[in-house]
Structure formats: C-alpha cells, structure tokens
Amino acid sequence: PQHVVLYPLVSKSLRNIAAGKDPLEGQRHCCSIAQLHEHYSLGYPDLDELQKNPQPLIFDIEVLKVEAPGSYQQDPWAMTDEEKLQAVPLIHKEGNELYRQGKVQEASAKYYDAIACLKNLQMKEQPGSPDWIELDQKITPLLLNYCQCKLQCEEYYEVLDHCSSILNKYEDNVKAYFKRGKAHAAVWNVAEAQADFAKVLALDPSLRPVVSKELRSLEARLREKDAEDKIRFKGIFSQ
To answer: Which GO terms describe its molecular function (predicted)?
Structure first.
C-alpha cells in the first residue's frame, strides 16, 4: 500500500488534464503529504475512498496510438516557458489551417492552446509592464480568431465576454467591435449591435459595405421576428 499512497493526487491531476484543466488545480505549493492532510476531498468519491484506505492497485494500460518520432506535441501545461514561446506560432498556424479546412471546433481548440501558453507566461509578469503588454498583444489576435470560431459555433455570449475584455484594454480594435456587434445582433441586443457597428465605421470607414450588409441582415431578422410575434399574439388574444 505504501507504494500507491499518493496515487489519488496523481489521478486527480490526470483527470484534470483529460478535462482540459490545470493539472495542479486546487493544489498549493507544498509537499504531497501536506496536500493529503489539507484536503478533505479531492472531488472524486473513489479517490477519497482510496486516500482514506490505501490498497494495492493493478493498472491496465492500453496503447491508443503510435506516433512517429518527432511528431509528438506536448500539452501546454507540460512545456517549459521557452517551449511555450516556440510552440505558439506553430499552434497558431495549425489553427489557421484547420479553420481554412472548415474544421472550426478543432481550430478553436488550437487557438485556445496557444492562448493558454501565452496566458501562463503573462501571469509571471507584472501587469502593465512592457513584457506583460508584449504578451498581451500576442494574445489579442489569437483571442479574436478564437471568437470567430465561437461565432460560427453560435456561442455568442462567450464572444461578448472576450471581445469586451479586449475593448476594455484596446478601445480602437475594429475587429473586436465587429465581432461583438455580430454577437449582439445574434442575441437580439439591437441597440448594442448598432452602437458597435457605428464604432466600426468611425474607426474604419472602408468597412461600410460589410457593416451595411450586417445591418440589413439584422433589420430583415427584426421584420421577420415582428411578423412572427404578431401572428403568435393574434392567436393568443383571439382565443
């Protein structure tokens, strides 16, 4: 039993990785024995039971795939700081290629990984410092690409959150206004959408044809919605 007494913590980390979370989520920087005494629950009943009553374990290992030498790409959490910086342009390129192929969900996952690498590095810098700002300027285009994927996946409120966070720092980011405007329009925030599209035109008048198309689409959807509402309410009041 003494050989697997720390396995519950290892298993929790592996489960976090499988769920796309930080493998050390919920753990402080202290020794593993201290972790065992500090946490009353690991969040998984089977691991809690194993933690209370350590016992010999048998592991079944299944080979899922075999990769060619040099083809393996580490997950962001396992990379060193230098490896993260080197990996970001490659992951960004992979995301762009997937997007061009129409694989939007896969592309968004790549952009997310690249953002995670840079965010991890940014957390080690003083907010507002030159290095922090440099990393943030690398994160912004990746985040906008991620938002484009989320627009296509109809996850509009995530787009609103991310674009607003960009605009809180960079008030002249045309792409963030445009994507936020599209997201507002999709969830019927008409006034907010119109305001964002107006800001796009103020910052870049050359985008008038694109903005006009979006506004016409919004107006057409509003007319269609009004017609549907009239029919629906007419049915209610005639009963």
So the answer is: peptidyl-prolyl cis-trans isomerase activity
d(CA 45, CA 51): 10
Q: What is the pLDDT of residues 132-144, one digit of tens each?
A: 999 999 999 999 9
Look at residue 25 and tell me whether its pLDDT is greater than 70. Answer: no
Residue whose C-alpha is closest to residue 10's, from 47, 46, 55, 38: 47
Other beta carbons less than 10 A from residue 26's beta carbon? 13
Task: For the chain, give every domain's residue range.
Answer: 6-52, 77-153
CA distance 141 to 185: 22
pLDDT confidence of residue 174: 98
Q: Rounded to an integer, what distance in angstroms lies between the CA atom of residue 132 and that of residue 137?
A: 9
**pTM score, two decimals?**
0.69
**Cα 164 to Cα 197: distance, rounded to the nearest angstrom:** 14
- How does 30-64 read in b/e, with b if 16+ C-beta sit within 10 Å? eeeeebeeebeebeeeebeebbeeeeeeeeeeeee
Q: Is the dihedral of CA 94, 96, 100, 105 positive or negative?
A: positive
Whether domain 77-153 has CATH 1.25.40.10: yes
Query: Could you give the residue ranges of the DSSP H alpha helices within 53-129?
Result: 81-100, 104-122
Tell me if 188 sits within 8 A of 179, measured CB to CB.
no
